[in-house]
Amino acid sequence: MQIIILENAEQVASGAAQWVAEVIKQKTNPVLGLATGSTPISLYKQLVEYHQKGQLSFENVTTFNLDEYHNIEAENPQSYRTFMKQNLFDHVNIDQEKTYLPTCRNDQNPRVQGLAYEEQIKNAGGVDLQILGIGANGHIGFNEPTSSLASRTRIKTLTKQTLQDNSRLFKKDEYQPTMAMTMGIATILDARYVLLMATGKNKAAAVKQMITGPVTAMCPASALQMHENAIILIDKDAASELTEQEYFQWANQEHQKINQTFGLFI
Ligand code: F6R
């Protein structure tokens, strides 16, 4: 794991944007794994800005989102398709036919839909860089605690904590879905690079468990310890429970010298 501790959320967003831009520029047909939620919003803002300044083209980019609510219309204001359109897709030159989310209607078998999503990812050549946030309970995607570390795209029932955390995004009388399709932990681990962003004190305990706790289904993000190329971009608040902060800062300075000479990726 490469742990990068930055001053604030703004720096986390621009750090993440640099990694994403680098993948897009280096690969002929870049495949990005995308996340929704509050954390990546400023990353997407930065990417839109790069695009508007003529510095970044999404022409050849394919995207796969981590998750989508079960049985939700794409046009529903609460769908993750709508979130992605509002925050990224509608503002860049991406071919929206090449933007995928793991959808599943009531009349569709979630197992078949899950397998089909895995197949689509494979056919696109696999994910080059997977963007992740982390839940206060350690979830990645909607892989809630106790999710199998070998899980693949499937339907999950959300925990009370996740429903509570996300209730801020729904109006008082609005229906809040309780189930979602999500890439599995093994799906996420298949990405060539994973980049997890975390900001704020409410993520500090989960971040500590992810980095220094045991690899356990009780903290799905801890599975990233088993990933060869995991980049963890966090602000000081999210890092506040880590006792190894000084070492991480030092190691990162050393890494930066290597990055400056050889670039961010192999
Ligand atoms: C979103 C997702 C979730 C979020 C996590 C953090 O697609 O998969 O795992 O990344 O719940 O959400 P925020 O960023 O809103 O704190």
- Spatial gap, N to C terminus: 15 Å
Estimate the strand proportion: 15-25%
Oligomeric assembly:
single chain
State the helical fraction.
25-40%
* Count of domains: 1
Main-sheet strand order equals: 1-10-9-6-2-3-5
CATH class: Alpha Beta
For the residues shown, what is the average pLDDT? 96
CATH topology: Rossmann fold
InterPro entries: Glc/Gal-6P_isomerase (IPR006148), Glucosamine6P_isomerase (IPR004547), Glucosamine6P_isomerase_CS (IPR018321), NagB/RpiA_transferase-like (IPR037171)
Organism: Shewanella holmiensis
Active site: 67, 137, 139, 144
Protein name: Glucosamine-6-phosphate deaminase
Can you walk through the features of this model?
Its EC number is 3.5.99.6. Homohexamer. It catalyses: alpha-D-glucosamine 6-phosphate + H2O = beta-D-fructose 6-phosphate + NH4(+). InterPro entries: Glc/Gal-6P_isomerase, Glucosamine6P_isomerase, Glucosamine6P_isomerase_CS, NagB/RpiA_transferase-like. This is Glucosamine-6-phosphate deaminase. It is a single chain. 34% of the residues lie in helices and 16% in strands. The chain is globular and about 55 Å long. The chain has a single domain (2-262), classed as Rossmann fold. 41% of the residues are buried. The protein is α/β, with parallel strands linked by helices and 266 residues long. Helix 1 crosses helix 2. The mean pLDDT is 96. Strands 1-10-9-6-2-3-5 form a seven-stranded parallel beta sheet. The chain has a three-stranded antiparallel beta sheet with strand order 4-8-7. The two termini are 15 Å apart. The chain contains eight helices and ten strands. Fructose -6-phosphate binds at residues 35-39, 66-67, 133-135, 139-142.
